[in-house]
Amino acid sequence: MLTGAGVSAESGVPTFRGGGRTAVWKGMPFEVISSAGMVRSNLPEVWEWFDYRRGVLSTCRPNPAHETIARWQDRFDSFTLATQNIDGLHAAAGSREVLELHGNAWRARCLKCGGREELREKPSDVRPPVCVACGGQMRPDVVLFGEMLPERVWISAAERAARCDLCFVVGTSAIVYPAAGLPYAAAEAGAFLVEINPEPTPLSEACDATLRGAAGEILPLLDEEGA
Ligand SMILES: [Zn+2]
Asked: What Rg, from alpha-carbon coordinates, does the chain have?
């Protein structure tokens, strides 16, 4: 299963991507404040922006889509969840071993040693946070514009896609590569491809089934059907 922003929209998580050239933070477009260059040039500002985002996220709870997906991990012999979301709501709903393709807003990563730490366990008034292992400065552990996906997570996702029998693509417009390539890899491996999204996407034509609607409504229905 591959999920995107649509799964969390029903929990009230904004995409923070206003579309077009919308300025979202102190007059800076999303692609500027959320970029690798900004981490190098103004790390405190990046933290201020992510602290603001986490403040919004802290009010959001998992919805029926997250809850249904969490149940499915025990329903199939083999089940993999890969998500483009950084909000941590899949884990909050009980999903285990989530492949977070774009990282997690609740985690920090050391710029010096690469160590990762839960932000909830660190003092919130120290910005940038300091790594417990080496004392280095930390950054948000999310994939920013101009950055690669975390290699190990990506390799795992690609491997699972290549062995996939049934692939659900939920709440993602399937345009952000390389994550958008996963369903095609699954289809190539012979998987039955199911899209759940309110709107048609570039992926729709390649799907064996398309279910139009909100993830939080459709997934629980499939659950009832015993699909
Ligand atoms: Zn460190």
From this structure: 18
CB 171 within 8 Å of CB 217: no
Task: Give residues whose Cβ lies within 5 Å of ion ligand 1.
Answer: 110, 112-113, 115, 131, 133-134, 136
Query: Please, what is the angle between helix 151-162 and helix 181-188, to 10°?
Result: 30
Q: Measured between alpha carbons, how far is 177 from 145 in angstroms, rounded to an integer? A: 12
Digit-coded pLDDT (tens) for 42-85: 999 999 999 999 999 999 999 999 999 999 999 999 999 999 99
CA 10 to chain CA centroid, nearest Å: 15
Cα-to-centroid distance, 115 and ligand 1 (Å): 5
Q: What Å distances lie between residue 136 and 129, 140, 157, 177, CA to CA?
A: 8, 13, 30, 31
SS3 category, 139: strand
Query: Tens of pLDDT along 197-217?
Result: 999 999 999 999 999 999 999
- Positions annotated as catalytic residues are 102
> What's the CATH code, domain 2-17+62-102+149-225?
3.40.50.1220
Interatomic CA distance for residues 110 and 84, integer angstroms: 22
**CA dist list (Å): 20 to 17, 87, 200:** 8, 23, 20
Query: Which one-letter amino acid corresponds to residue 6?
Result: G
Ligand 1 centroid to residue 160 C-alpha, Å: 31
pLDDT tens digit string along 88-139? 999 999 999 999 999 999 999 999 999 999 999 998 889 999 999 999 999 9
